[in-house]
Write a sequence for this structure.
């Protein structure tokens, strides 16, 4: 049942993108999202799509995998498109009963849809090519640069690491308990909403008990190895920037520059 | 109630980089009323195989036929199959959820849509079978029991559905020796009383040797051997090659055979070994 969720999943492969420093990838994604909101013309999207295509190609992640990430959020995209299509005021183009579609509406709807799709693709390429551990490492380093948050950077990153670490475990556990209850004749698929919610009790109670038990065991295991939080804690693997990260930053800056340029130079 | 697998294949996460083949071309026919042992290394496909027996997993290729019913047939009522094929997972105590022991065991029979007094009598019977006193435990929370008691309650939850086939995936893992023996003896007596087919997955060759009529040996998603314990444990070398072993008493008897070639090495239980060794000692005294 969780097979279709690819957002936040890691796709192991050996590629330049995979080897990039997680900080580079986080910064790139951040800048990429900002630049998406700077786009004012289709030419700008052309630039964005070309860069994205290049990255996907380099990352060796099958395109189908990234497309699947969009599929999960298709409902939100359609909703955005419909709202933009029907409520944007402007010159009427079509009329369906009382609903007026304006020229500006079509324009805005396409823009919004493209923006969302690129947003999802951009972020999923980051999570697909960065292992969860590397990702939280990167986040910890970056959080340490922000005042106030700095003091809690390690704790926040540790919480994220643990949460990410337990997602597959809990999914596995859910699957196991679900099967065990199905073997006892439980039904998770039919009935109305209320009945279905009630039928989830035999799944949720053991799942929560299991999660608490695991949390407890983990806390003891960590304390047994003298874990005291982030202060004075050294790392086994320090994050180090390589030349490829420099190139990646250069490419990122080039992309943003080109996108800003498309705001002023309109070809299409 | 027979179980038949024809050219069964199961591949997990097909079409992703996590693709993993768990079963390959499994052909198997389990007769009704047998006590079957299922052994194999970790990851050899035992758990995947048993989950096909009540339709929890669907084969990616091949057919599963339970008592003449094809599980891939849309008209087959899967719920009925699950009633007739009871499956006790590893660490079944992790599936307990109700407020009281009685309610938890009644969950399965309740799902079958049985009448209240029928459910009640089944709960009593199931608790009796696993050796948990009804009056003492019925109103207790399952979470205040000891590990061994929780395990029994969980097993009772499946037994209360009165399956024709009972599959147990390592039912004694993590229990003390006394608890192991009690649970297995209770299962054995249930097997002989109700002519139930039992499939026992275990890593303990001693338990397998002691209780089963036939043994299925799995290796890398395939059925390597399917025979009586006598014939299986003759293949000591093959078993060791695939990460298994013969029971420890059998190992001892094989060593003794080097000293005394007259000794019978096809011995799998401590009792039989005792008899064999006593007769060996007597024989040698006479010499």
């Amino acid at each position: 049942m969780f097979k279709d969720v690819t957002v936040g999943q890691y796709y192991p492969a050996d590629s330049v993108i995979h080897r990039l420093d997680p900080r580079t990838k986080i910064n790139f994604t951040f800048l990429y999202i900002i630049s998406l909101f700077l786009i004012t013309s289709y030419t700008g999207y052309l630039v964005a799509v070309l860069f994205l295509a290049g990255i996907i190609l380099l990352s060796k992640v099958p395109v189908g995998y990234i497309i699947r990430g969009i599929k999960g959020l298709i409902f939100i995209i359609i909703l955005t498109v419909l709202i933009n299509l029907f409520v944007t005021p402007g010159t009427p183009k079509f009329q369906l009963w009382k609903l007026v579609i304006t020229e500006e509406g079509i324009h805005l709807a396409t823009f919004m849809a493209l923006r969302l799709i690129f947003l999802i693709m951009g972020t999923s390429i980051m999570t697909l090519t960065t292992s969860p551990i590397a990702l939280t490492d990167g986040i910890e380093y970056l959080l340490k640069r922000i005042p106030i948050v700095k003091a809690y950077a390690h704790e926040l990153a540790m919480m994220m690491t643990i949460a990410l670490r337990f997602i597959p475990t809990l999914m596995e556990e859910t699957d196991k308990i679900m099967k065990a209850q199905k073997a006892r004749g439980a039904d998770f698929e039919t009935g109305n909403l209320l009945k279905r919610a009630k039928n989830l009790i035999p799944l949720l109670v053991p799942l929560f008990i299991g999660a608490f038990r695991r949390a407890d065991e983990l806390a003891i295991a960590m304390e047994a190895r003298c874990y005291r939080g982030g202060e004075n804690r050294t790392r086994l693997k320090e994050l180090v920037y390589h030349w490829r990260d420099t190139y990646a930053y250069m490419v990122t800056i080039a992309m943003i520059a080109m996108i800003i340029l498309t705001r002023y130079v309109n070809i299409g | 109630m027979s179980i038949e697998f024809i050219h069964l294949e199961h591949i997990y996460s097909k079409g992703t980089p996590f693709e993993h083949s768990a079963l390959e071309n499994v052909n198997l026919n389990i007769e009704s009323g047998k006590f079957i042992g299922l052994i194999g290394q970790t990851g050899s496909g035992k758990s995947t195989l048993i989950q096909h027996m009540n339709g929890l997993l669907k084969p990616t290729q091949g057919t599963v036929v339970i008592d003449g019913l094809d599980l891939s047939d849309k008209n087959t009522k899967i719920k009925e199959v699950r009633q007739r094929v009871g499956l006790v997972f590893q660490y079944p105590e992790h599936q307990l959820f109700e407020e009281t022991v009685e309610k938890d065991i009644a969950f399965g029979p309740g799902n079958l849509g049985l009448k209240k007094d029928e459910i009640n009598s089944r709960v009593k019977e199931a608790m009796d079978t696993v050796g948990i006193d009804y009056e003492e435990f019925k109103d207790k929370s399952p979470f205040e029991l000891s590990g061994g008691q929780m395990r029994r309650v969980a097993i009772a939850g499946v037994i209360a559905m009165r399956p024709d086939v009972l599959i147990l995936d390592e039912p004694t893992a993590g229990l003390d020796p006394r608890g192991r023996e009690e649970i297995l003896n209770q299962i054995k007596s249930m097997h002989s009383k109700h002519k139930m087919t039992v499939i026992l997955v275990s890593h303990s060759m001693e338990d397998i040797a002691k209780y089963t009529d036939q043994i299925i040996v799995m290796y890398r998603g395939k059925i390597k051997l399917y025979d009586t314990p006598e014939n299986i444990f003759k293949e000591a070398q093959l078993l060791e090659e695939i990460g298994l072993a013969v029971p420890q008493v059998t190992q001892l008897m094989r060593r003794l055979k080097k000293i005394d070639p007259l000794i019978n090495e096809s011995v799998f239980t401590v009792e039989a070994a005792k008899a064999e060794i006593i007769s060996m000692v007597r024989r040698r005294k006479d010499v």
Notes: The radius of gyration of chain A is 23 Å. The longest strand of chain A covers residues 92-96. Chain A touches chain B through 22 residues (CB under 8 Å).
